[in-house]
Fold each of these.
Amino acid sequence: MPAFYLTLIAVLLAGIGARDQVTVAGLALRQGPRPGILVVALASAGATAVFATWAATALLAQLPPPARTIFVAIALALAGLESLILRPRRNPREPTHSLGALLLVLLAHQVTDAARFLVFGMGVGFGAPLASGAAGILGGGVLVAFAWGWPHLLDTAAARWTRRGVGGVLSLVALTIFLSEIGIL
């Protein structure tokens, strides 16, 4: 159960103001709260979390326990750097009403975002990819539903600073885990 709860908390924090959330919020602001946007966003969040779970399951069988901890540190570092470096565009310039195009954009954003790195890394680190995957599906769904329901809250400085703060914390946690594992701390 710790894998589920810790992954859920990490995904919810890392997903604040993420590219997929800003995309959904921007479309909801421009087009109104179309149910199709929410359905596509939920499907995309679920599909990418399932993909991260599958990847964690495949890698888990190949890594010995000491290497899993180092892998978690690498995944946390990637998630932190993604949160610090990549900034989402505020609003789509030319939003389309095509749900297929939205699905492709969301899949591209989510497959490499901090939340999915966390699902992947925590699944390997805890040795519980299914619990981490379930947390990733739930957390990703909550994040895109929030963006769809309250899109105006993501266009604030507080959301951007929260994203940067979480990225910094993830990077520090990754560094601490890595240094602890190699015996420096």
Amino acid sequence: MKKLDTRKQLVAMTLGATLFALGTHTNVSAATFSSNPLFEVNNYTTTLSVSGDAADIYFPVNSNSATPRKFPIALMLQGALVDKADYSNYASQVAGYGFVVVVPNNFRTAPDPTGQEITGLIPEQQQVQNILTEMVAENSNANSPVNNLVDTKTLGLLGHSLGAFVSLSAAQEEFCFPAICTPGYQKPPELKAVINYAGAFGNTQTQTFLPLNNGDTAIGLIAGSRDGVGIPLITRETYNQVQNPPKVLITVEGANHYSITNEDNLTREPNRPTLEQSIATETIARWSGLFLRAHLLNDRDAFDYVYNTGDALDNNVSVISEKQTIPEPSAAVALLAAGVISLKLRGKSKHN
């Protein structure tokens, strides 16, 4: 009986020490995690060789050249008729989380919802393939500012308004929408995550929505509570139509349709924001950057912020989400420790 008590004490002490260590590690990680950008950012403007369009490229500055690292691509798909320069604040902040953010001016002619042709800055699916091709060339170009800095195998999409619609369309292959789709488009394996602002997947005029069969591509949606163009309820319905988690819907209180841009648009948006423009843009960029870190870089702290703790930490947002079920690290390690202890005790009992 005494030996049995001793063994129980050993198990309790070892498990206790293990759980205490794990708990201490978790607390330290939570205490030291910062939701702020990690890198300083530089940028340049180039002409895309595939399309001939101008593009702004924002990239992290490697502070330690002795240990070079590569950064995934984040393609920003613009709202209709919104110039790339209007996203400079947002794009530079997202880049600070460790991404090469590409913001092209996609100039073309396409039909509007009434059937009339319109010429201007209009995003489309083909940009996804074009940018992947372009960034492979930029990465191997010795004269490029991002030479050997780009992870060309990993892509995330950002989008605003019509650009958000395009980014969601690019995450699936089942429905091809006139004016934005590319016949024969196939979702590239590099596309791992989509996070956009003021977006919907379907006909917003008739409020008819389609199921979004996103496969293994994580989907993030951000909406402004005062959006008078996209309307938050439409974004919420799009969230409901996303077929495969992980997915998240972040509502920014007091933001309107143009809170992602450098300035509000008094002509195209009937509602004025109640959240200061710079704060709203930073909030949208922070959640975008951390969502991409969670799903493109497997950053567990960023994942925890987006799906667990960020809602309580950020007074300007409300969050709903659905994530894939994965074992908690502490629980997995605790079970492993228990198994090891059990094996050790069995070994001891054979000698007793």
Amino acid sequence: MMTKEEITMVGFEIVAYSGEARSKLLLALEKAKEQHFDECNSLIEQANDCLNDAHKAQTELLSLEARGEEIEIGFITVHAQDHLMTTLLLKDIVFHLINIYH
């Protein structure tokens, strides 16, 4: 069973990975505006790696709950979920915007 502190640390991990992905996605959009598509594509790949890491952390919590373990969810965990979901939405929007610049 994970302690509240451990769950909080997973939440911070999700926030950090999601924040890094968000920054890379926005920079990728700027590179697309400048027609620097090699840099843009590299940043998108890096953002995807960050999102995969965030998803792995999220899955860790989901797996605990699915096994029936009691998980004490705090505000940081909710904040982490919010960060991840808005970054995933941003990824979809940035993808469509980049296609406009192509």
Amino acid sequence: MANQQGDLSAALEPVVRDAVAAAGFELEQLDVQRAGRRNLVKVAVDTADAAGAGASIGLDEVADVSRAIAGVLDEHDHVLGGPYTLEVTSPGTDRPLTKPRHWRRNRLRLVKVRTAEETFTGRVGAADEQGVQLLVGDQLRQVPFAEVAHAVVEIEFKQPPPEELARLGGGQEGTR
């Protein structure tokens, strides 16, 4: 049954991705699960890269993209094979940083990073397609994404030290 649900996700992903993109967002995750007699279609969407750091999706936007996804799912009812429940969400603060755009959006934030060799906390600087610059303690380090096993944003309850922001080329305007 799990394989069948994976096949459903794979079959629906292109049309759901297109509907999400047409609404101006990016598909983060699509998961189809069996829930009794219905399929539960879980979709996580995020703002598009062009939205920039700190951009988030609001409730009205979730409603708009939900309608767009429901429209394409209704058109592809033959793939789902019956009734479904749709859940559309946006990623939370505990989302792992898995793509370069996740790192760019979290510039100047504190992150906890685990590699094969170590676990450390650093502040995010510039990121490109291959890696990210992190301020770890008082040292700037270039960390290739290929070496990152897991990374998440650390919640801070106070403003970051101005000297850290300055080392990464950012000012107070770049923070929450």
